[in-house]
Amino acid sequence: MEPRPDQEIIAAVLGGHTEAYAELVDRYRDRCNRFAVRFLGDRDDADEALQSAFLRSFRGLAAFRHPGRFESWLFQIVVNECRTLATRRARRAERFVRDEARSAQAAVEHTADRTALLAEIQYALDQLELDQRQAFLLKYVEELSYDEMSESTGVGISALKMRVQRACSRLRTLLVAVYQ
Amino acid sequence: MSEHDEHVDALMEQIAEVLRAPEPAASDFTTRLMARAEADSRSALAQHAAVFGAHGWWRRRRTIRLSVSPLGALSIAAGLATFAVLANLAMHNTRAPLARTTPVAAATSALPAADARIDTVHEVRFVFRAPRASSVTMVGDFNNWDSAITPLHRTDAEGTWTVSVTLPPGAHQYAFVVDGKSWMPDPASATMVNDDFGTLTSVIAVGDAT
Q1: How many Å lie between the alpha carbon of B95 and the closest alpha carbon of chain A?
Q2: Residue B149 in contact with partner chain A when CB distance is under 8 A
Q3: A112 contacts in B (CB within 8 Å)?
Q4: Do B23 and A37 touch (CB under 8 A)?
Q5: pLDDT in tens for each of the 210 residues of chain B?
Q6: CATH architecture designation of domain A92-179
Q7: Sign of CA dihedral B185, B191, B195, B199
Q8: What is the ipTM of this complex?
Q9: Is B23 within the bounds of a domain?
Q10: 8 A C-beta contact, residue B131 and residue B145
Q11: A·B CB contacts under 8 A
């Protein structure tokens, strides 16, 4: 069966069928979760940010004027929620300690193990500045165009290009040994 | 592209490929979210009933449909605005709050002849006092909690900051962000709630929230 278009689900929710919102959540939660986990480096934080983002989107549906662009709007909220959570919570030090332990373990198992490789990369990502990490993930992992990135973040294209470039440079320094 | 750039790009692609691996949300994610959404809906309805009354004039007004000329529409709009302001003053007849709401009824200028009607929009003027602030912005459910979208403007030497925001009918959560870092609820707001992060957030009820 063809999945219902977003507009139709939104109309149902606004018409009083609140439960229909679950269809939208199921449709987009995994993609949003991937961004949140990579950006925040912690699954519990990602879950919290996503719950909040989807709830904000639910509350804002009545005021949302472009139902054909729900995914883009939702992603914008997710990006904002992740940033807010990252800046509000000073967990970086705690996470570095935990990930350093994981990273040391990964070195023993060596990079043939893809999980260990992901842990190495996540550790490197965590060391980027928030702006650079966000720009890198949107560009390389979510594969957004610079126009789309600008729409999601409210940041100009030139600044985004600079952030991506700096992120790449830093990641290269941190990870080149892993790939040699 | 230099050899060095090509090497960097190839490396980034290798890194991105690993990061693109699926990361499914928790299996009970949707169930937990929907429980909160349902509770949120009930709470919003209860809040609206508390502010406007379950069968108040706001609810009845929604069904009014008028066929009018553009000029007539503007006259009616002005009348509605006056009525709304008076009603608002009657509801807040104690001391003047720092944040004032001024609902303004506006009519579209090109009304279809067969189905002419008036849509009411609400322009809410927020006033916030922060004498030592360098910048004040608003975050709320109406701007996706993005502090870059709705800056307030300083209007006098005493540190009064204001902004006018067009809001759809309903209950809206919001807060002020001072100097880009301090999140503050509106001291003039009658209703405040703890948001999803346990932070105090103001609530404003605008127009017909049904």
Answers
A1: 31
A2: yes
A3: none
A4: yes
A5: 555 556 668 889 999 999 999 999 999 999 999 998 888 777 665 554 554 444 332 332 232 333 344 554 455 455 545 444 444 444 443 333 334 444 433 333 333 333 444 456 688 889 888 888 888 999 888 887 778 889 999 988 888 899 999 888 888 888 888 887 777 888 777 777 776 556 678 888 887 544
A6: Orthogonal Bundle (1.10)
A7: positive
A8: 0.82
A9: no
A10: no
A11: 122
In the structure encoding, which two tokens stand for residue A146, read together? 């610079």
Question: In this structure, which topology does domain A6-88 adopt according to CATH?
Answer: Rna Polymerase Sigma Factor; Chain: A (1.10.1740)
- Mutation target to probe the A interface, by most A beta carbons within 10 A, among B23, B40, B62 is B23
Q: Where along chain A do its domains lie?
A: 6-88, 92-179
Tell me the β-bridge partners of B101. Answer: B124
CA terminus-to-terminus distance, chain B: 58
